[in-house]
Structure formats: C-alpha cells, structure tokens
C-alpha cells in the first residue's frame, strides 16, 4: 500500500513521533527503494456519524463490497485490551477508571493496525470512529491520504426513536429494534420510514434495554458528539472531501441510495447478479 504512507506532508512537530509509529514512512523518507508503483489501491475512506446512526453497519457492508478492511477504533481498543499487547495494561487502567482513551493511544493502535495490514498486503481502508477530534484529523492528514469522508446523517427525532427502540436478547446477545418509525422529513425532505427489526420468537421474552439507552442519555450523547464532530466535518468540508449523506430510512432504503451517492451502482448490480447466480 505504497500510497498509504506518505512522508512529504508530515508536520515537522509530529515527524519524530510519527516515524516511531510509521516505520514505513521513515524508510521511504530515508531513500528506501520506492515501492513497486502499483498505484492502484483500494479506497481510503472515513465514516463519520453520530452514535446510533448505523455507520458500523454501512462501513462493514462497503468493506465487503470493496474488499478493503473496515477498521473501527472501538474494536482496536477491545482487541488490545483482550491481548497482552504493550498497551493493554495502560488501557485497562484508563477504561476501569472510566476515562477517555487519549488521542495518542488511539493513533498508536491505529498506526499499528495500518502497518500490520500493509505488511499483509491490504490495500485501502474504511475508518469507522476515527478521527473523532480535530487534532486526530490533523495527525491523520500527516500520515495518510484520505480520499473521502462520508458523513451519515439522520435527523435527531429519528435517531432518538431508533435508539430508544433498541433491544438486546439477554440470552444470545442478539440486537433488535422494536421501533416502527414513520417521521416527517425536516426542511422539505421526504418522510423517513424505518421498519422494526423484531426478534425471533425464542428471543422475544428475553429482551432487555441497555441502561444507557434512555432519552436523557441519548440526547446528551448526541450533544457531545455534535460538539466534537462539527470541527472535524468543517476540516474535511474545507478540503472538499466531505460527502454529506442524509439516510432516507433503514438499510433497505438507504443502501441503494448510498451506493448511488458513491458511484458504486455498478458494484451493486454485480452484487445482485452474484446473488441471483
Ligand atoms: Zn436470543
């Protein structure tokens, strides 16, 4: 993934720490043999979207469609915690104290993940949950090219209903949603319809609600998210990389429209043909 790691735009203040974390960038800078110039690489996209919007779902579907890894920073943290990696001890202390994981640790985990992927011949990525802050966005810009940032949006009353409808099966851990949403679109946009995702019969009597899926907590989560993400959105908007995408409904309504917006309709046709075959 030669195009992934780039040295020319490294911020000088970050150069030394970046070289520690991105050995390949340092090697290229020090005149290492240029990688075979197979400049054909997979997409390098970022997914933004507030909690509950479903960006993990869309990122994961696109990841299979485009054959690029879906890298969710939440998973990186969980994997490191579950491993005996160098950061696992430090991380478990932070998590046990209920503190936020710092930009440095997240960047460290992400760069390790990208370097491992590169070593395995991965090409491209879909980042999910990163960058979360303007500082993370700036650091990321110094080390890799981002082609496109997809900002998934859902109006607040729909998000709220969706989050309040979430249910988990206490036995098998399955995720369901009992909300049947039919809400008037804001600003002249079409109405938003989302079918519930009902549990199978064996789970129906075992459903529980997550303790933090209350109206108060969901609204607070959205407020904090918007406060943090607006500068990140602006950062990419000013670089002409932000694609705003208003989800028109649930997955059946949104998926084809998202593919259209990304000029991936052809992929979708292929996908349909391979399903039909
Ligand atoms: Zn179940």
Defining traits:
single chain, 277 residues, alpha/beta, 5-stranded parallel β-sheet, 12 helices, 14% strand, binds zinc ion, nucleotide-binding, AMP kinase activity, kinase, P-loop_NTPase
What does this structure look like?
Helix 1 crosses helix 2, helix 4 crosses helix 5 and helix 4 packs across helix 6. The radius of gyration is 20 Å and the shape is globular. The longest helix is centred in the C-terminal third of the chain and has 23 residues. Strand 5 and strand 6 form a beta hairpin. The N terminus is likely disordered. By secondary structure, it is an alpha/beta fold. The two termini are 33 Å apart. Zinc ion binds next to helix 9.
* Ligands: zinc ion
Average pLDDT over all residues: 83
Beta strand count:
10
Separate helix tally? 12
The assigned structural class equals: alpha/beta
Please outline the major beta sheet: 5 strands, parallel
- First-last Cα distance: 33 Å
Weakly predicted, low-confidence segments = 1-38
Q: Return Rg in Å.
A: 20 Å
Task: Give the SSE string.
Answer: HHEHEHHHEHEHEEEEHEHEHH
Strand content: 5-15%
Helix residue percentage: 40-55%
Strand order in the largest sheet:
2-3-1-4-10
Shape assignment = globular
Compose a concise summary of this entry.
The protein is of the alpha/beta class.
Tell me the layout of helices and strands:
Blueprint: H1 12-21, H2 23-29, E1 44-49, H3 55-66, E2 70-72, H4 73-82, H5 88-96, H6 103-119, E3 125-128, H7 134-143, E4 148-153, H8 156-164, E5 166-169, E6 175-177, E7 181-183, E8 192-194, H9 201-204, E9 207-208, H10 215-237, E10 242-246, H11 251-261, H12 265-276
Helix pairs in contact: 1-2, 4-5, 4-6, 8-10
């Amino acid at each position: 993934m030669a195009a992934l790691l780039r040295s020319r735009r490294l911020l000088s203040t970050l150069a030394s720490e970046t070289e520690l974390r991105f050995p390949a960038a340092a090697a290229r800078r020090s005149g290492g043999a240029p990688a075979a110039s197979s400049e054909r690489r997979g997409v390098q996209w970022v997914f933004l979207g507030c909690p509950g919007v479903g960006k993990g779902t869309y990122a994961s579907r696109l990841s299979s469609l485009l054959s690029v890894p879906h890298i969710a920073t939440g998973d990186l943290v969980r994997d490191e915690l579950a491993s005996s990696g160098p950061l696992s001890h430090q991380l478990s202390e932070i998590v046990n104290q209920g503190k936020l994981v710092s930009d440095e640790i997240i960047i460290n985990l992400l760069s390790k993940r990208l370097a491992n992927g590169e070593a395995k011949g991965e090409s491209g990525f879909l980042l999910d949950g990163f960058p979360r802050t303007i500082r993370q966005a700036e650091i990321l810009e110094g080390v890799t090219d981002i082609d496109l940032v997809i900002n998934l949006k859902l109006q607040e009353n729909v998000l709220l209903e969706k989050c309040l409808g979430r249910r988990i099966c206490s036995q098998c851990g399955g995720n369901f949603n009992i909300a049947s949403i039919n809400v008037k679109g804001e600003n002249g946009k079409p109405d938003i319809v989302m079918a519930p995702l009902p549990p199978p019969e064996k789970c129906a009597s075992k459903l529980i609600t997550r303790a933090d899926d209350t109206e108060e907590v969901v609204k607070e989560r959205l407020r904090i998210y918007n406060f943090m993400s607006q500068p990140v959105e602006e950062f990419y908007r000013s670089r002409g990389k932000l694609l705003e995408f208003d989800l028109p409904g649930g997955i059946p309504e949104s998926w084809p429209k998202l593919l259209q917006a990304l000029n991936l309709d052809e992929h979708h046709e292929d996908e349909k043909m391979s399903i039909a075959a």
